[in-house]
Amino acid sequence: DADVTQTPRNRITKTGKRIMLECSQTKGHDRMYWYRQDPGLGLRLIYYSFDVKDINKGEISDGYSVSRQAQAKFSLSLESAIPNQTALYFCATSDFDNSGANVLTFGAGSRLTVL
Amino acid sequence: AQRVTQPEKLLSVFKGAPVELKCNYSYSGSPELFWYVQYSRQRLQLLLRHISRESIKGFTADLNKGETSFHLKKPFAQEEDSAMYYCALSGQGGSYIPTFGRGTSLIVHP
């Protein structure tokens, strides 16, 4: 089983619809992240959380919200989807390894298309 | 603020040729640099990190603080190296949250 699981893997929706992307992890990591990947723009941080009571905006949080339901679960919501939110969304977790580096473990991605 | 620049969107080489994927960064403190790789139909995964000074799959990367660079190198490219490569930076000033470059697509031709 994957350490970081994202659902759904693919979703097509219409403008104005509410969408939730879910992420769960079995790594036991406190830190969780949502990134968005667009061709030519790389990965951009949407939101991150260092523990259940901690939520922080990233570089491109407008139009998105998150919920950290438990240490293992971190959901991303689009309250009213618009076409320029069409992208591949990645959830990630992290912990500091033996060398002190904060290394990310990624989910497989959720491809969202907004028509 | 922390920033990562990967100047090449696409790098195309032939099998056996040397490869260098460029990464430059901007950060006022002491950075941690990483290379992540995304092979076709696979998850984004860590390739290597500067703090470990390791060689993974024949790739190496040296942190050059004077030039603020962390270029990824391999002396002889293989077809299976074809992938998307992302340079990332984290540091204490940014709560160790990784900032990614725009990525370089490496294509190795047979």
Describe this structure in words.
The complex is a heterodimer of chains A (115) and B (110). Helix content of chain A is 0%, strand content 60%. By secondary structure, chain A is mainly β. In chain A, strands 2, 4, 5, 6, 9, 10 and 11 form a seven-stranded mixed β-sheet that branches. The radius of gyration of chain A is 14 Å and the shape is globular. Chain B has no helices and eleven strands. Chain B has strands at 3-5, 10-14, 19-21, 24-26, 32-38, 45-49, 60-61, 72-74, 83-90, 99-100, 104-109. In chain B, strands 2, 5, 6, 9, 10 and 11 form a six-stranded mixed β-sheet that branches. In chain B, strands 3-8-7 form a three-stranded antiparallel β-sheet, with no helix packed on it. In chain B, strand 9 (83-90) and strand 10 form a beta hairpin. In chain B, 37% of the residues are buried. The mean pLDDT of chain B is 92. The chains are: A mainly beta (115), B mainly beta (110). The A-B interface holds A 33, 35, 40-45, 48, 50, 58, 90, 94, 96, 99-104, 106-109 and B 6, 9, 32, 34, 36, 43-46, 49, 51-52, 86, 88, 90, 95-103.
